[in-house]
Amino acid sequence: MGAGIAFTGALSELFTGTAAAQGTGGHSGYGPLVPDPDGVLDLPKGFRYKILSRTGEDLPSGEGKVPSNFDGMAAFAADGHHNRHGHKHGKTWLVRNHENRQDGKVGVPTVDGLTYDPDAKGGCTLLELDHDNEVLQERVGIAGTSTNCAGGPSPWDTWLTCEETEFKAGEEGYSKDHGFIFEVGFRHDRPTSTEPLTAMGRFQHEAIAFDPRNGVVYETEDAFEKPFGLFYRFLPEKPLGGYGSLHAGGKLQAMRVPGLPDLSVAQEPGETFDGIEWVDVPDPLAKETPIRFQDFGKKGITHAQKLEGCYWGGKSVYFVSSFAKSDEGSKADHYGQIWRYDPKRKQLTLVIVFGPDTDLQMPGEEPDNICLAPSGGLMVCEDGEGAQHVYGLTKHGKVYPMAGNRQDIGTPEEPAWGEFAGVTFSPDCRTMYFNCYEPGTTFAVTGPWQH
Q: Which domains does the chain have, with CATH numbers?
Protein backbone atom coordinates (compact mmCIF):
# COMPACT_ATOMS: atom_id res chain seq x y z
CA MET A 1 0.00 0.00 0.00
CA GLY A 2 1.47 3.32 -1.01
CA ALA A 3 1.46 6.34 1.25
CA GLY A 4 2.66 9.87 0.81
CA ILE A 5 1.62 13.49 0.68
CA ALA A 6 2.23 16.24 -1.80
CA PHE A 7 2.79 19.89 -1.01
CA THR A 8 4.01 23.07 -2.57
CA GLY A 9 5.87 25.90 -0.91
CA ALA A 10 9.20 26.85 0.62
CA LEU A 11 9.50 24.28 3.37
CA SER A 12 12.89 25.63 4.47
CA GLU A 13 11.09 28.79 5.61
CA LEU A 14 9.48 26.81 8.41
CA PHE A 15 12.88 26.32 10.04
CA THR A 16 14.43 29.76 9.54
CA GLY A 17 15.84 31.08 12.78
CA THR A 18 15.27 27.86 14.72
CA ALA A 19 17.63 25.25 16.09
CA ALA A 20 16.46 22.94 13.32
CA ALA A 21 19.41 23.42 11.06
CA GLN A 22 20.16 20.14 9.32
CA GLY A 23 16.88 18.33 8.92
CA THR A 24 15.75 15.22 10.73
CA GLY A 25 15.86 12.45 8.20
CA GLY A 26 18.73 14.14 6.38
CA HIS A 27 17.89 14.83 2.75
CA SER A 28 15.61 11.90 2.10
CA GLY A 29 14.16 10.37 5.28
CA TYR A 30 14.77 6.91 6.68
CA GLY A 31 13.50 4.59 3.97
CA PRO A 32 10.24 2.68 3.59
CA LEU A 33 8.12 1.52 6.49
CA VAL A 34 8.73 -2.07 7.53
CA PRO A 35 5.56 -4.06 8.32
CA ASP A 36 5.29 -4.77 12.04
CA PRO A 37 4.88 -8.55 12.59
CA ASP A 38 2.76 -7.73 15.65
CA GLY A 39 0.41 -5.60 13.57
CA VAL A 40 0.70 -2.48 15.73
CA LEU A 41 3.09 0.14 14.32
CA ASP A 42 5.15 0.19 11.12
CA LEU A 43 8.47 2.05 11.30
CA PRO A 44 11.55 2.42 9.09
CA LYS A 45 14.32 -0.14 9.45
CA GLY A 46 16.40 0.38 12.59
CA PHE A 47 13.64 2.07 14.60
CA ARG A 48 11.87 0.53 17.56
CA TYR A 49 8.72 1.36 19.45
CA LYS A 50 7.68 0.88 23.05
CA ILE A 51 4.08 1.08 24.19
CA LEU A 52 3.99 3.27 27.28
CA SER A 53 0.29 3.31 28.04
CA ARG A 54 -3.06 2.06 26.74
CA THR A 55 -6.67 2.97 27.36
CA GLY A 56 -8.37 0.80 29.97
CA GLU A 57 -5.24 -0.22 31.85
CA ASP A 58 -5.08 0.47 35.58
CA LEU A 59 -3.39 3.75 36.43
CA PRO A 60 -0.37 2.95 38.64
CA SER A 61 -1.52 5.79 40.90
CA GLY A 62 -4.59 3.77 41.86
CA GLU A 63 -6.90 6.56 40.68
CA GLY A 64 -8.78 4.40 38.18
CA LYS A 65 -8.38 3.41 34.52
CA VAL A 66 -6.29 5.06 31.80
CA PRO A 67 -8.84 7.27 29.98
CA SER A 68 -9.82 7.19 26.29
CA ASN A 69 -9.17 9.46 23.30
CA PHE A 70 -5.43 10.23 23.50
CA ASP A 71 -4.75 13.57 21.82
CA GLY A 72 -2.31 16.50 22.20
CA MET A 73 0.85 15.98 24.23
CA ALA A 74 4.16 17.58 25.24
CA ALA A 75 7.41 16.35 26.81
CA PHE A 76 9.25 18.18 29.58
CA ALA A 77 12.55 17.63 31.36
CA ALA A 78 11.75 16.58 34.91
CA ASP A 79 14.52 18.78 36.34
CA GLY A 80 13.67 21.76 34.15
CA HIS A 81 16.95 21.65 32.21
CA HIS A 82 16.73 20.90 28.49
CA ASN A 83 19.61 19.01 26.91
CA ARG A 84 19.92 19.66 23.18
CA HIS A 85 23.34 18.05 22.72
CA GLY A 86 22.40 14.41 22.41
CA HIS A 87 23.59 13.26 25.85
CA LYS A 88 21.37 11.09 27.97
CA HIS A 89 18.97 13.10 30.04
CA GLY A 90 17.32 12.20 33.32
CA LYS A 91 13.60 11.84 33.80
CA THR A 92 10.96 13.11 31.39
CA TRP A 93 7.35 14.11 31.97
CA LEU A 94 4.73 13.55 29.30
CA VAL A 95 1.54 15.58 29.66
CA ARG A 96 -1.25 13.96 27.61
CA ASN A 97 -4.70 15.28 26.69
CA HIS A 98 -7.87 13.19 26.60
CA GLU A 99 -10.48 14.48 24.16
CA ASN A 100 -13.40 12.94 26.03
CA ARG A 101 -16.90 14.25 25.55
CA GLN A 102 -20.03 12.93 27.29
CA ASP A 103 -19.86 9.86 25.06
CA GLY A 104 -19.52 6.85 27.33
CA LYS A 105 -15.79 6.39 26.73
CA VAL A 106 -13.40 5.85 29.66
CA GLY A 107 -13.36 9.23 31.37
CA VAL A 108 -10.54 10.86 33.32
CA PRO A 109 -11.03 9.83 36.97
CA THR A 110 -12.10 12.65 39.27
CA VAL A 111 -9.48 13.42 41.90
CA ASP A 112 -9.86 15.79 44.85
CA GLY A 113 -8.11 19.08 44.15
CA LEU A 114 -7.66 18.29 40.44
CA THR A 115 -11.28 18.38 39.21
CA TYR A 116 -13.02 21.37 37.61
CA ASP A 117 -16.45 19.92 36.77
CA PRO A 118 -17.20 16.52 38.32
CA ASP A 119 -19.72 15.83 35.54
CA ALA A 120 -17.17 16.20 32.71
CA LYS A 121 -15.00 13.33 31.47
CA GLY A 122 -12.02 15.04 29.81
CA GLY A 123 -8.68 16.14 31.18
CA CYS A 124 -4.99 15.24 31.15
CA THR A 125 -2.83 12.45 32.49
CA LEU A 126 0.86 12.63 33.42
CA LEU A 127 3.55 10.03 32.72
CA GLU A 128 6.96 10.22 34.37
CA LEU A 129 9.64 8.29 32.44
CA ASP A 130 13.25 7.41 33.17
CA HIS A 131 15.97 7.78 30.53
CA ASP A 132 15.12 4.33 29.13
CA ASN A 133 11.44 5.29 28.75
CA GLU A 134 10.32 3.06 31.60
CA VAL A 135 7.15 4.43 33.19
CA LEU A 136 7.89 5.50 36.78
CA GLN A 137 4.42 6.86 37.46
CA GLU A 138 1.21 7.63 35.64
CA ARG A 139 -1.51 9.75 37.23
CA VAL A 140 -4.22 12.33 36.65
CA GLY A 141 -3.04 15.86 35.82
CA ILE A 142 -6.45 17.52 35.63
CA ALA A 143 -10.00 16.13 35.53
CA GLY A 144 -13.49 17.47 34.97
CA THR A 145 -12.72 19.30 31.75
CA SER A 146 -14.10 18.45 28.31
CA THR A 147 -12.84 17.66 24.84
CA ASN A 148 -9.19 18.38 25.66
CA CYS A 149 -7.78 18.44 22.16
CA ALA A 150 -4.43 20.20 21.95
CA GLY A 151 -2.77 23.11 23.75
CA GLY A 152 0.87 24.04 24.14
CA PRO A 153 3.75 24.42 26.60
CA SER A 154 4.37 27.61 28.54
CA PRO A 155 7.81 29.24 28.81
CA TRP A 156 7.88 28.16 32.49
CA ASP A 157 7.30 24.45 31.78
CA THR A 158 3.62 23.96 32.36
CA TRP A 159 1.06 22.69 29.86
CA LEU A 160 -1.89 24.78 28.71
CA THR A 161 -4.64 22.29 27.88
CA CYS A 162 -7.43 23.53 25.61
CA GLU A 163 -11.10 22.54 25.59
CA GLU A 164 -12.45 22.14 22.07
CA THR A 165 -16.06 22.78 23.04
CA GLU A 166 -18.30 25.62 24.16
CA PHE A 167 -21.11 23.89 26.06
CA LYS A 168 -22.53 25.79 28.99
CA ALA A 169 -23.60 24.62 32.43
CA GLY A 170 -26.82 22.67 32.13
CA GLU A 171 -26.12 21.52 28.57
CA GLU A 172 -25.19 17.90 27.79
CA GLY A 173 -25.05 17.10 31.51
CA TYR A 174 -22.29 19.58 32.40
CA SER A 175 -22.36 21.40 35.75
CA LYS A 176 -20.09 24.27 34.66
CA ASP A 177 -19.36 26.29 31.52
CA HIS A 178 -16.72 24.81 29.20
CA GLY A 179 -14.55 26.06 26.35
CA PHE A 180 -11.58 27.29 28.38
CA ILE A 181 -7.82 26.87 28.77
CA PHE A 182 -6.37 25.38 31.98
CA GLU A 183 -2.78 25.37 33.24
CA VAL A 184 -1.52 21.87 34.08
CA GLY A 185 1.60 21.40 36.17
CA PHE A 186 3.58 18.34 37.16
CA ARG A 187 6.07 19.78 39.68
CA HIS A 188 5.37 20.56 43.31
CA ASP A 189 6.23 24.23 42.83
CA ARG A 190 3.93 24.48 39.77
CA PRO A 191 0.77 22.54 40.56
CA THR A 192 -2.26 22.25 38.30
CA SER A 193 -4.89 24.96 38.64
CA THR A 194 -8.53 23.96 38.18
CA GLU A 195 -9.50 27.60 37.69
CA PRO A 196 -9.98 28.31 33.96
CA LEU A 197 -8.01 31.07 32.26
CA THR A 198 -11.19 32.91 31.39
CA ALA A 199 -9.56 36.00 29.87
CA MET A 200 -8.07 33.79 27.15
CA GLY A 201 -11.57 33.24 25.80
CA ARG A 202 -14.35 30.68 25.81
CA PHE A 203 -14.52 28.99 22.42
CA GLN A 204 -13.61 25.75 20.63
CA HIS A 205 -9.90 25.93 21.36
CA GLU A 206 -7.31 23.87 19.53
CA ALA A 207 -3.69 24.91 20.15
CA ILE A 208 -1.58 27.76 21.52
CA ALA A 209 1.93 29.12 21.05
CA PHE A 210 3.86 31.78 23.00
CA ASP A 211 5.97 34.55 21.51
CA PRO A 212 9.03 34.03 23.76
CA ARG A 213 10.08 37.65 23.35
CA ASN A 214 7.04 39.36 24.82
CA GLY A 215 4.70 36.67 26.16
CA VAL A 216 1.91 37.15 23.61
CA VAL A 217 -0.08 33.93 23.25
CA TYR A 218 -1.54 32.89 19.89
CA GLU A 219 -4.59 30.61 19.84
CA THR A 220 -6.35 28.60 17.13
CA GLU A 221 -10.06 27.77 17.03
CA ASP A 222 -11.33 24.56 15.45
CA ALA A 223 -15.03 25.34 15.04
CA PHE A 224 -17.03 22.56 13.41
CA GLU A 225 -19.71 24.60 11.66
CA LYS A 226 -19.87 27.81 9.67
CA PRO A 227 -18.89 30.48 10.51
CA PHE A 228 -15.61 28.71 11.07
CA GLY A 229 -12.94 29.50 13.63
CA LEU A 230 -10.73 32.53 14.19
CA PHE A 231 -7.04 33.04 14.86
CA TYR A 232 -6.51 34.89 18.15
CA ARG A 233 -3.83 36.57 20.16
CA PHE A 234 -3.90 37.12 23.93
CA LEU A 235 -2.04 40.08 25.43
CA PRO A 236 -1.34 39.16 29.08
CA GLU A 237 -1.44 41.74 31.86
CA LYS A 238 1.76 40.11 33.20
CA PRO A 239 3.67 39.01 30.09
CA LEU A 240 6.19 36.24 30.78
CA GLY A 241 5.31 36.56 34.45
CA GLY A 242 5.92 32.90 35.23
CA TYR A 243 3.75 30.24 36.78
CA GLY A 244 0.22 31.46 37.53
CA SER A 245 0.68 34.84 35.85
CA LEU A 246 -1.91 34.18 33.16
CA HIS A 247 -4.61 34.33 35.84
CA ALA A 248 -3.94 38.09 36.06
CA GLY A 249 -5.94 38.41 32.83
CA GLY A 250 -5.34 40.33 29.65
CA LYS A 251 -6.89 41.29 26.34
CA LEU A 252 -8.16 38.85 23.71
CA GLN A 253 -8.09 39.90 20.05
CA ALA A 254 -8.96 38.22 16.75
CA MET A 255 -7.08 38.50 13.45
CA ARG A 256 -8.50 40.48 10.54
CA VAL A 257 -6.77 40.12 7.18
CA PRO A 258 -7.82 43.10 5.03
CA GLY A 259 -9.64 41.88 1.93
CA LEU A 260 -9.56 38.23 3.00
CA PRO A 261 -12.61 37.10 5.01
CA ASP A 262 -11.78 33.40 4.52
CA LEU A 263 -8.20 32.02 4.51
CA SER A 264 -9.16 29.19 2.16
CA VAL A 265 -9.31 31.65 -0.75
CA ALA A 266 -5.50 31.88 -0.72
CA GLN A 267 -4.10 29.03 -2.82
CA GLU A 268 -0.55 30.00 -3.87
CA PRO A 269 2.43 29.38 -1.56
CA GLY A 270 4.27 32.61 -0.89
CA GLU A 271 1.12 34.71 -1.13
CA THR A 272 1.51 37.51 1.40
CA PHE A 273 -0.95 39.83 3.12
CA ASP A 274 0.22 43.05 4.76
CA GLY A 275 -1.35 45.30 7.32
CA ILE A 276 -2.79 42.53 9.49
CA GLU A 277 -5.17 43.96 12.07
CA TRP A 278 -6.10 42.70 15.54
CA VAL A 279 -9.60 43.46 16.74
CA ASP A 280 -10.71 43.32 20.36
CA VAL A 281 -13.13 40.47 21.05
CA PRO A 282 -16.40 42.05 22.26
CA ASP A 283 -17.25 39.29 24.77
CA PRO A 284 -14.40 36.82 25.44
CA LEU A 285 -16.61 34.74 27.77
CA ALA A 286 -19.23 34.34 25.02
CA LYS A 287 -21.99 34.78 27.59
CA GLU A 288 -24.72 35.08 24.95
CA THR A 289 -23.07 34.58 21.55
CA PRO A 290 -20.09 32.43 20.47
CA ILE A 291 -17.13 34.65 19.64
CA ARG A 292 -17.03 33.79 15.94
CA PHE A 293 -20.66 35.02 15.63
CA GLN A 294 -20.03 38.30 17.46
CA ASP A 295 -20.09 41.72 15.82
CA PHE A 296 -16.57 42.78 14.82
CA GLY A 297 -17.70 45.90 12.98
CA LYS A 298 -18.37 46.74 9.35
CA LYS A 299 -15.05 45.28 8.19
CA GLY A 300 -15.89 41.90 9.67
CA ILE A 301 -13.30 39.34 10.73
CA THR A 302 -11.26 36.56 9.04
CA HIS A 303 -12.41 32.95 9.42
CA ALA A 304 -10.86 29.60 8.48
CA GLN A 305 -11.99 25.98 8.57
CA LYS A 306 -10.13 23.48 10.77
CA LEU A 307 -7.53 25.70 12.44
CA GLU A 308 -5.38 23.17 14.28
CA GLY A 309 -1.66 23.03 15.15
CA CYS A 310 0.24 26.14 16.25
CA TYR A 311 3.91 26.68 17.12
CA TRP A 312 6.54 29.42 17.38
CA GLY A 313 9.61 29.32 15.11
CA GLY A 314 12.28 31.99 14.68
CA LYS A 315 10.49 35.36 14.78
CA SER A 316 7.06 34.16 13.69
CA VAL A 317 4.12 32.03 14.72
CA TYR A 318 3.00 29.22 12.40
CA PHE A 319 -0.46 27.67 12.35
CA VAL A 320 -2.28 24.98 10.40
CA SER A 321 -5.59 24.81 8.59
CA SER A 322 -6.10 21.07 8.13
CA PHE A 323 -8.51 21.36 5.22
CA ALA A 324 -11.22 23.48 3.66
CA LYS A 325 -14.28 22.15 1.84
CA SER A 326 -16.59 24.37 -0.15
CA ASP A 327 -19.47 21.94 0.30
CA GLU A 328 -19.16 22.52 4.06
CA GLY A 329 -19.16 26.30 3.76
CA SER A 330 -15.59 27.35 2.99
CA LYS A 331 -14.99 29.76 0.10
CA ALA A 332 -12.53 27.37 -1.54
CA ASP A 333 -11.06 23.87 -1.18
CA HIS A 334 -7.65 22.73 0.00
CA TYR A 335 -6.08 19.70 1.67
CA GLY A 336 -4.08 21.67 4.22
CA GLN A 337 -2.26 24.96 4.67
CA ILE A 338 0.55 26.17 6.93
CA TRP A 339 0.55 29.92 7.58
CA ARG A 340 3.22 32.20 9.05
CA TYR A 341 2.45 35.43 10.89
CA ASP A 342 5.31 37.88 11.44
CA PRO A 343 4.26 40.21 14.31
CA LYS A 344 6.95 42.82 13.64
CA ARG A 345 5.95 43.25 9.99
CA LYS A 346 2.24 42.62 10.65
CA GLN A 347 2.45 40.25 7.71
CA LEU A 348 0.72 36.93 7.01
CA THR A 349 2.20 34.47 4.50
CA LEU A 350 0.87 31.19 3.11
CA VAL A 351 3.95 28.99 3.37
CA ILE A 352 2.80 25.46 2.48
CA VAL A 353 -0.21 24.05 0.63
CA PHE A 354 -0.80 20.30 0.93
CA GLY A 355 -2.23 18.33 -1.94
CA PRO A 356 -4.07 15.02 -2.07
CA ASP A 357 -1.90 12.22 -0.79
CA THR A 358 -1.17 9.04 -2.68
CA ASP A 359 -2.62 6.69 -0.08
CA LEU A 360 -4.43 4.06 -2.11
CA GLN A 361 -7.13 3.77 0.53
CA MET A 362 -8.37 7.35 0.52
CA PRO A 363 -6.82 10.44 -1.06
CA GLY A 364 -6.64 13.78 0.67
CA GLU A 365 -5.47 13.26 4.25
CA GLU A 366 -5.02 16.45 6.22
CA PRO A 367 -2.20 17.74 8.47
CA ASP A 368 -3.19 18.09 12.11
CA ASN A 369 -0.71 18.11 15.01
CA ILE A 370 2.75 19.29 13.95
CA CYS A 371 6.04 19.77 15.74
CA LEU A 372 9.54 20.86 14.89
CA ALA A 373 12.01 18.03 15.25
CA PRO A 374 14.82 19.20 17.55
CA SER A 375 17.59 18.54 15.00
CA GLY A 376 15.56 19.84 12.08
CA GLY A 377 12.57 19.02 9.97
CA LEU A 378 8.90 18.85 10.72
CA MET A 379 6.75 15.99 11.96
CA VAL A 380 3.10 15.94 10.89
CA CYS A 381 0.24 13.78 12.18
CA GLU A 382 -2.42 13.22 9.56
CA ASP A 383 -6.09 13.10 10.48
CA GLY A 384 -8.62 11.77 8.01
CA GLU A 385 -10.08 8.62 6.52
CA GLY A 386 -8.09 5.60 5.43
CA ALA A 387 -4.61 4.69 6.64
CA GLN A 388 -2.96 6.98 9.17
CA HIS A 389 0.66 8.10 9.35
CA VAL A 390 3.16 10.36 11.00
CA TYR A 391 5.06 12.04 8.17
CA GLY A 392 8.43 13.73 8.26
CA LEU A 393 9.27 16.74 6.09
CA THR A 394 12.91 17.67 5.66
CA LYS A 395 13.93 21.28 5.15
CA HIS A 396 15.06 20.23 1.68
CA GLY A 397 11.49 19.43 0.67
CA LYS A 398 11.46 15.64 1.06
CA VAL A 399 8.28 14.10 2.47
CA TYR A 400 8.74 10.66 4.02
CA PRO A 401 6.66 8.26 6.14
CA MET A 402 7.85 7.95 9.75
CA ALA A 403 5.16 5.72 11.24
CA GLY A 404 2.09 3.85 10.06
CA ASN A 405 -0.79 2.72 12.26
CA ARG A 406 -1.72 -0.96 11.91
CA GLN A 407 -4.32 -1.10 14.70
CA ASP A 408 -7.55 -1.71 12.78
CA ILE A 409 -10.63 -0.31 14.53
CA GLY A 410 -13.02 -0.85 11.63
CA THR A 411 -14.81 -3.86 10.22
CA PRO A 412 -13.76 -6.48 7.61
CA GLU A 413 -15.96 -4.66 5.10
CA GLU A 414 -14.75 -1.18 6.08
CA PRO A 415 -11.30 -1.17 7.70
CA ALA A 416 -10.34 1.96 9.62
CA TRP A 417 -7.34 3.13 11.57
CA GLY A 418 -7.18 5.60 14.47
CA GLU A 419 -5.53 8.94 13.84
CA PHE A 420 -2.16 9.92 15.28
CA ALA A 421 -1.84 12.92 17.59
CA GLY A 422 0.44 14.64 20.06
CA VAL A 423 3.78 14.15 18.32
CA THR A 424 6.62 15.54 20.46
CA PHE A 425 10.30 14.86 21.21
CA SER A 426 12.11 14.10 24.46
CA PRO A 427 14.33 16.80 25.97
CA ASP A 428 17.46 14.85 24.98
CA CYS A 429 16.22 14.49 21.37
CA ARG A 430 16.56 10.70 21.41
CA THR A 431 12.89 9.73 21.51
CA MET A 432 9.84 10.72 19.53
CA TYR A 433 6.55 10.30 21.39
CA PHE A 434 3.08 10.28 19.88
CA ASN A 435 -0.39 8.94 20.52
CA CYS A 436 -2.84 6.83 18.64
CA TYR A 437 -6.22 8.41 19.34
CA GLU A 438 -8.15 5.12 19.22
CA PRO A 439 -7.38 2.61 20.57
CA GLY A 440 -5.67 5.00 22.97
CA THR A 441 -1.96 4.17 22.82
CA THR A 442 1.13 6.21 23.68
CA PHE A 443 4.31 5.23 21.82
CA ALA A 444 7.98 5.98 22.38
CA VAL A 445 10.03 5.60 19.18
CA THR A 446 13.83 5.34 19.25
CA GLY A 447 16.37 4.65 16.55
CA PRO A 448 19.11 6.13 14.36
CA TRP A 449 17.89 9.74 14.36
CA GLN A 450 20.16 11.85 12.15
CA HIS A 451 21.56 14.88 13.94
A: 6-446 (2.120.10.30)
